[in-house]
Amino acid sequence: MPLDLDDALNHLEENASDALPIAGATDLLPRIKRKQVSVRNLVDLSGLQELRYIKQEGGTVRIGALTTIADLEAQRNDSVWGRLLTDVAGRFGSPNIRSVATVGGNICAASSSEDLIPVFLVLDAKVKTIRRTGTREMPLQEFLVAKRKTTLHPDEILAEVSFPEPSARSACSFQKLGMRNILIIALVSVAVFLEMDEKDSKIKCARVAFNRLRGKIPQRAENVEKEIVGKELSGQTIKSAVDRLGDELALTSDFRASAQYRQEAVKVLLRRALTDCQQKILGK
Amino acid sequence: MAKHLVKFNVNGKDHALVVESTERLLDVLRDRLNLKGVKEGCGTGDCGTCTIIMDGRLVNSCLVLAAQARDKKITTIEGVGTRERLHPVQKALMKYNAAQCGFCTPAMVLAGKNLLDHNSTPSREEIKGAISGVLCRCTGYYKIVDAIYDAAKEISEVKS
Question: The domain A5-37+51-164 is classified under which CATH number: 3.30.465.10, 3.20.20.60, 3.50.50.60, 3.40.50.300?
């Protein structure tokens, strides 16, 4: 149990062969119980208060990896990103889990059940990692390799997520479909970020990400994004985006839902998300 | 397996224990401190019957390592009310017949108490949100929500 960041990094460097950094441990403990992971040398980062922050600096929002989901829910930043994060955090797991689960843990768990990943993907987030020998910064997309696999080195920790502050001409939406409202792993989820041009008439920038698209990791749907950029934010555009989505999908079945069900459900969610953004932009 | 000396406070009493790296707080509370009001339902964070209050926040003790509880202040159901002097949430749950099998009741009391500690005038929606991490398979929640709503009124009347 390291006392500060230096201590943690030293410990990880010395024990890189079998060390496993943990924070809220809400993902790890069920996996130990199900014998899906063997326990290694656990390095508990949950006490590192220096990595627990949400701040805005020169047009960039920076969130420390040890920020809890409850911290995200409680921040009441009245902005496009602030409202989005409060909304997502308020539907994350249960209050009991939000108390200890962290932003960094959610990203490093790297699976389709992590609600924050599609959200940070559409916010165009970068991640910063630290180890004794230096820091790295890379787009979140590059950090995620495959289900439960990231580019994090064994002696490295995720320190921060940052993203450019969205302009006032933008809107975001996160839609998640599960069997109930709380404590549910999304069957499918989608996050959308739209930014309008100066005259609020055409879509200047669009980012769309799903919790799964091809394979079991959150990804951006680039064809859908290309389809709608430069167009008016109308019902017709929303329809063409939903039609285009079919080309990108290669969803799989599991015990939670069949591929066919997911295939139809994602289209509905995308339409809801785009319509939600449309209402937010028209309503402001 | 590494061992750690951990100190924490449970229901007002300080404890110092040597725990193993992977020992869950749930097991330490139940088996070593004999606090059997902390229940294990699923052990994976879904049911919330192992709920405790740790530093003013609800947590699932099955998802916390005992070593992570160092220096924390913990409240379990054994630390809420006494037989002679029940907590308003406990009294209200009895009044509304809001317990059937009783397995989730300790967790429901703690969820209600923790909400009222932070917000003495919650709406029904806020109560639903506060107990949303605790599953009850008997009552359908209505009576529990009514009871906590009633307890909130009682607490604010006593205060005013």
Answer: 3.30.465.10
ipTM confidence score: 0.93
Determine whether the interchain pair B68/A25 forms a contact, defined as Cβ–Cβ distance below 8 Å.
Answer: yes
How many C-beta neighbours within 10 Å does residue A218 have? 30
Q: Is domain B3-79 classified as CATH 3.40.50.1260?
A: no
State mean pLDDT over A227-251: 91
- Give the CATH number of domain B88-159: 1.10.150.120
Alpha-carbon gap, residue B120 to B52, rounded angstroms: 20
Domain definitions of chain A by residue range: 5-37+51-164, 170-283
CB-based contact, B24 to chain A, within 8 Å: yes
Look up the CATH architecture of domain A170-283: 2-Layer Sandwich (3.30)
Tell me the shortest Cα–Cα distance from B101 to chain A, in angstroms. 22
Domain ranges of chain B: 3-79, 88-159
The answer to whether domain A5-37+51-164 and domain A170-283 are alike in fold is no
The residues, ordered by sequence, that sit 6+ positions from B133 with a Cβ below 8 Å of its Cβ are: A93, A94, A95, A96, A97, A182, A183, B48, B51, B58, B60, B111
* Mean per-residue pLDDT, A177-186: 82
Which residues in A lie closer than 8 A to residue B65 (C-beta atoms)? 22, 25, 29, 42, 44
Among B65, B126, B134, B137, the strongest candidate for a mutation testing the A interface, having the largest count of A CBs within 10 A, is B65
Q: Which of residues 128-147 of B touch A (CB under 8 A)?
A: 129-130, 132-134
Share of chain A above pLDDT 70, in %: 100
Nearest CA in chain A to B26: A29
Chain B environment of A39 (Cβ under 8 Å) = 1, 21-22
Q: What is the pTM of this model?
A: 0.94
